[in-house]
Amino acid sequence: MKFDIITIFPEIFNSYFNESILARAQKNKLIKINVHNLRDYAKDKHKTVDDTPYGGGAGMVFKIEPIYKALVKIVGKNKLKCFKNRIKKRELRIKNKNNKTKIILLSAKGKKFDQAMARKFSKLDNLVLICGRYEGVDERVAKYLADEEISVGDYILTGGEIPAMTVVDSVSRLIEGVVGNKESIKEESFSKKDYLEYPHYTKPEFFSPDKKTNWKVPEVLLSGNHQKIEEWREKYSK
């Protein structure tokens, strides 16, 4: 699967994507992550990608032109929503039968990202993520270019870069082979609707931070009785 991220701060992604599971997944060619500098698609010598909002107000707004140019370069015109919508429905079905590309605008007003959405995205071939900044992104990007707007939570961040990392991480681990032990993702939190995984314990059996305190692993987990352990885990799953 290929991820394309559009941002004005491409260096932000280096450390996170070059460590641990995501680094290994890229090395094994299970995923490919391309980070695109939006300023490379600006038309003026100053690489301007934002401007003041029409109607007045605080902050700056990302311009549509460089985002449009970046998307055309990354996916081609025919995969943009504005062009797909011009094709007759029957032709659209034929033309996009094998089209498994989705363009996402990361936005505070988007649909809430969850595990079900991550599973859906993991079936794609190409996921393009547009990272906003400042006051926001020209609304025509959401209206005519992006397939969906998504939000990672009901709070405001300084930009879409952290949400982009969140989406790439969450989606990647659902791709076969990315997580070493595939059993790990079968019964984890949110693997089923509203499901939260049971508590986990490991050695030592006893932990005493001071002489008066002794924190012990639940007896049932030490019993070796698999039926009782499963009953305990079911009880403490939510």
Description:
This protein has 9 helices and 10 strands. By secondary structure, it is α/β, with parallel strands linked by helices. The protein has 2 domains: 2-182, SPOUT methyltransferase, trefoil knot domain (Alpha/beta knot, 3-Layer(aba) Sandwich); 198-236. The chain starts with a strand and ends with a helix.
Break the fold down into its secondary structure elements and pairings.
Layout: E1 2-7, H1 14-17, H2 20-27, E2 32-37, E3 50-51, E4 61-62, H3 64-75, H4 81-84, H5 89-95, E5 101-112, H6 115-121, E6 126-131, E7 136-137, H7 139-145, E8 148-151, H8 161-172, E9 206-207, E10 215-216, H9 226-236
Parallel strand pairs: 1-2, 1-6, 4-7, 5-6, 5-8
Antiparallel strand pairs: 3-4, 9-10
Helix pairs in contact: 3-7
Q: What is the share of helical residues?
A: 25-40%
CATH class of the largest domain: Alpha Beta
Q: How many domains?
A: 2
Distance between the termini: 32 Å
Q: What is the count of DSSP helices, taking H or I runs of 4+ residues? A: 9
Secondary structure tally: strands: 10
Brief descriptors of the model:
9 helices, single chain, 238 residues
Provide a compact summary of the structure.
It is built from nine helices and ten strands. The chain has helices at residues 14-17, 20-27, 64-75, 81-84, 89-95, 115-121, 139-145, 161-172, 226-236, and strands at residues 2-7, 32-37, 50-51, 61-62, 101-112, 126-131, 136-137, 148-151, 206-207, 215-216.
